TrEMBL record:
Residue spans of biased composition, Basic residues class: 46-62
Similarity annotation: Belongs to the DEAD box helicase family. DDX52/ROK1 subfamily.
Protein name stated in the entry: RNA helicase
Enzyme Commission no: 3.6.4.13
Catalytic reaction annotation: ATP + H2O = ADP + phosphate + H(+)
Entry-linked SUPFAM superfamilies: P-loop containing nucleoside triphosphate hydrolases (SSF52540)
Entry's Gene Ontology BP terms: maturation of SSU-rRNA
Biased composition (Pro residues): 33-42
């Protein structure tokens, strides 16, 4: 997608301060200046809502600025976590010169306190491998209890965390939660299975009053229905004890919901279903205060940009807080996100776009398609350590492999886009409950799905990109557990091998030197026409 098209799509309906971001805007927009206004003229009703929205936004902006100052214990820019004081430093220095002796010592005390806070935040970030870019970044959390002392979090929520077995925040939670609670926008990149879901759910539950009237308060967009359903489940567990209306946008709701009478605090949906509800069923998203794009790079990649744009436009509250979360954040998405978000903070945990270090990764040369089937059977005979996930590149191939494994003594199940919603959910549930040992899957469950204790991911078909690889293998090695990932490759996959090998190397796994000597491929996507999966011998 061209930069100009995407930025125009993303700008629509947003409150964008062009003067302030003039330089960035010049950089990212090469064509004629897109209108930041909605593509069609707003109705008088819309205008009225926007007007009152703007007044509210001004008030909220002031509040946000105050909160940012109050909560910021440092002013770190870029990746230099030990950078010293910036603007505030000068302020304090001049304060010292202008005032009398008592005030002078107060200023010195304040300054020292601030320096200590900055240092503490920097030490925490270094310890948890958190890298940030942005102004006045709130300090990371030391513990969940700090949510009570620092942000007045309701103790039921901290109690729920403890009941769910979450005793310490993960690195992304330590940094993203204070940022969102301070009313700042962010884009966050942290490894698969590192607790990003809680990092955006917790601030929503702290900020939104349960059962509030006046429309939807938060929208979470996910690329697949399964992930949306999982996010609703997680949110309900976390909110237990409070009467939140947490809704999943199902097919039926999207097609025939009566949204005027619907109570909803938090709405989780895939982009298409939400867009349908907005356009065909008059779902009003003007009151949305938080918009989360989970697996954000996938949302943009799916060819959904227009749909995302339409949803962003529908969420017209000018003081909305947007956040993007993913384990992979391509530079192009990050650059565009910077131009549309208000003073957004970037958070990266560990190395950007890398696999979880908890996964032992292996590349296996299988020669041909037949070779892959033999290698799979052999590895099952040697050791089958369920649950195992097997990824293939298409639904046809998922059905073929399922048929083959049906002959073996392996409890296998399959999930792909041809199955209906219930069948897909059953396949996921069966693996979770241990009823099936092996789940053959297409890309539909590669993103975000949290299966407890998946021991091994097998890339039967080579993934089409490094990002796809990172997300697929990230279904194992979650929440501190270790996992294994095996990737078969054939002659046809060799040209793309180096891209995946780089991911292995950057997470500390061994790769034969001949693979690292292969030329780097500029092309980002790799999709091969493969022979069908079958044990019936070829005729020649
Ligand atoms: N603070 C915590 N302590 C222990 N476990 C946690 C904590 N936070 C989250 N988890 C658990 O970690 C697992 C992974 O979390 P989650 O699904 O949010 O990962 P993610 O970072 O979104 O991964 P992905 O990139 O694959 O979507 C879940 O089972 C979740 O319950």
């Amino acid at each position: 997608m061209e930069n100009s098209k995407l930025s125009s799509a993303l700008f629509a309906g947003t409150h964008f301060n062009r003067k302030r971001f003039a330089a960035d805007f010049e950089r990212f927009h090469q064509g004629p200046t897109p209108s930041p206004a909605a593509p069609c003229a707003p109705s008088p009703e819309k205008k009225r809502k926007r007007k009152s929205g703007k007044a509210k936004a001004k008030k909220n902006q002031k509040k946000r600025a105050e909160a940012a100052i109050a909560s910021s214990s440092d002013a770190v820019e870029g990746f230099n976590v030990f950078k010293g004081l910036t603007g505030k430093d000068d302020e304090l220095r001049s304060e010292k010169v202008d005032t009398g002796k008592d005030e002078d010592s107060v200023a010195v005390r304040r300054r020292k306190e601030m320096e200590r806070e900055i240092e503490r935040a920097a030490v925490l970030r270094k310890r948890f491998d958190i890298h940030i870019a942005g102004q006045n970044v709130p300090a990371p959390l030391e513990s969940f209890e700090e949510l009570i002392s620092r942000y007045g979090c309701d103790s039921y929520l901290v109690g729920n965390l403890s009941k769910l077995g979450f005793h310490e925040p993960t690195p992304i939670q330590r940094q993203a939660i204070p940022i969102l609670l301070s009313g700042r926008e962010c884009f966050a990149c942290a490894p698969t299975g590192s607790g990003k879901t809680l990092a955006f759910l917790l601030p929503l539950l702290m900020k939104i009053k349960p059962g509030s009237k006046g429309g939807v308060k938060a929208v979470i967009l996910c690329p697949t229905r399964e992930l949306a359903a999982q996010t609703v489940r997680e949110c309900k567990k976390l909110a237990k004890g409070r009467k939140y209306y947490i809704k999943l946008m199902t097919k039926d709701l999207s097609k025939s919901g009566n949204f005027k009478d619907m109570h909803c605090d938090i709405l989780v949906s895939t982009p298409l279903r939400l867009d349908h509800a907005v356009k065909k069923r008059d779902l009003d998203l003007n009151s949305v205060e938080y918009l989360v794009l989970d697996e954000s790079d996938k949302l943009f990649e799916l060819g959904f940009v227009e749909v995302i744009d339409s949803v962003v436009e529908a969420c017209s509250n000018p003081s909305i807080i947007r956040s993007l979360f993913s384990a992979t954040l391509p530079d192009s998405i990050e650059a565009l996100a910077r131009t549309i978000m208000h003073d957004a903070i970037r958070i990266i945990v560990g190395r950007k776009n890398s696999a979880s270090s908890l996964i032992k990764q292996k590349l296996i040369f299988a020669g041909t398609e037949r070779g892959k089937l033999l290698a799979l059977r052999q590895s099952f005979q040697e050791s089958l350590n369920p649950p195992v996930l097997i990824f293939v590149q298409s639904k046809e191939r998922a059905k073929e492999l399922y048929k083959e494994l049906a002959f073996d003594d392996v409890r296998a199940d399959v999930i792909h886009a041809d199955l209906n919603e219930q069948q897909r959910q059953d396949a996921v549930d069966n693996l979770r409950a241990g009823k099936s040992w092996v789940l053959i899957a297409t890309e539909v469950i590669a993103r975000g799905m949290d299966f407890k204790g998946v021991n091994c991911v097998i890339n039967y078909d080579f993934p089409e990109s490094a990002a796809a690889y990172i997300h697929r293998i990230g279904r194992s090695g979650r929440a501190g557990r270790s996992g294994e990932a095996i990737t078969f490759f054939t002659e046809e996959d060799k040209p793309f091998l180096r891209n995946i090998a780089n991911v292995l190397v950057s997470s500390g796994c061994e790769v034969p030197s001949w693979i690292m000597a292969l030329p780097k491929l500029k092309r980002k996507k790799h999709r091969v026409d493969r022979d069908p999966i079958s044990t019936i011998p070829d005729e020649d």
